[in-house]
Amino acid sequence: MQQIINFIIRNKNFLLFLLLFGISLLFTIQSHSYHKSKFINSANFLTGGVYNSANNISGYFSLKAQNELLTAENKRLRKLLLNVNTNADSTFIDSLTFSEDYRFYSANIIKNSYSLNNNVLTINKGRNDSIKQDFGVISSKGIVGIIDKTSGNYATVISILNGTSSISAQLKKTNHLGSLIWDGKDSKFTQLIDIPKIAKVKAGDTIITSGQSSIFPKGVPVGTIESFKLDQAENYYEINVRLFNDMTSIEHVYIIENANKEEISNLLGN
Amino acid sequence: MNSIFSIHTIRFVVLVFVQVLILNHINFSGYINPYIYILFIALFPVKNNRIVLILLSFLLGLTVDMFLDTGGIHAGACVFIAYVRPLILKSSFGMIYEHQSIKFNTVEFGSKLTYFTLLTVIHHFVLFSLEIFSVSRILLILQKTLFSSIFTILLSVIVTIIFSRKTK
Fold this sequence. Notes:
The complex is a heterodimer.
Chain A lengths: L1 H9 L1 H21 L12 H14 L4 H29 L10 E10 L6 E6 L12 E3 L4 E8 L4 E8 L4 E5 L5 E5 L7 E8 L9 E4 L11 E10 L5 E8 L8 E7 L2 H8 L2
Antiparallel strand pairs in A: 1-2, 1-12, 2-5, 3-4, 3-12, 4-5, 6-7, 6-9, 7-8, 8-11, 9-10, 10-11
Chain B lengths: L1 H20 L17 H4 L7 H19 L4 H21 L1 H4 L10 H24 L5 H26 L5
Helix pairs in contact in B: 1-3, 3-4, 4-6, 6-7
GO biological process, one term (chain A): regulation of cell shape
Family (chain A): Belongs to the MreC family.
Pfam family, one (chain A): MreC
């Protein structure tokens, strides 16, 4: 017993180092698996507050560009609204249920990140704004990510530029399904895998979300096909997708809640 | 004692804030960021207890991790360099270290540069290995280590020159 205590005292530096290094390794491994990181995230009171006040200042620098983006979107939506108005009334007889499948919340990105291997963003909406895990996040141009951790007023978003994210997407033209992943190399491109060989793939075609995952509705734009090749087994295409979104400068985002999500997941039995 | 304590507390807070609010948004050519918060570990008084340094480094790394949503990679890298710091001190300062009388303001520039370089390269290598976490992409790890290290060393040297107090 004496010897054990002596050993511990003699090697206390090394043992402490091993312990702390082990803890950091544990956190690291947890952060590499989807939805597992426990409490080291930027959605808490301290970090969220700091990012929020910093964003209050830095937000002014990109004000003009963001305004132009929003104006362009407003213009597009207004055009849509005017053209569709007459049809909508006749199709939806019960106006209470009209477009209640998806609810939208707007939010601002207060911490962007795109240079790491697993990028996580922070937004300024949280549980108090009824944001929950697994809500989808899009911008006016296309898909951004999925909500991960939430605190009172903040939430973290697993970006599509994250090695652990995998989102169901499809070819706009032919409805062939695949998964959207990221290889960690370039923030302008993501990869779409598992598109069957039989699909007619052409450079320049549009990729959209498939609506199979009950996170995103069908048809959220993702990007265009830049290049493609067959995988090693030569059964599926690996497609390089050029994103519509410039992930290095996003500010205003929309959070999508699928109102039927619980029903769908109950039906699938999980 | 009290003034040393407060200086290091302020340095801790300032370095973390500068790191997460400014330096992490540089992303020079896509991925190159300087990580100068390790100056806290580099400039920690030599005479103080090693256990204190290791614990503080863990805290420093964890704080940065929390801001950047990176799990525990900064904490791991910081603890690692805090543990190996005496070895690096010995190899870069030689005899002066043996006498336990290093003042970072007064040592000559060459050995200070060696010291920063060793510390930074080790830190960045551990950091990016943990971040990328795959042996098959060792080239990417080395590339990131090299470029970010150059940036960090340059900035740390500039910062120490600017903020060094001229005590004889």
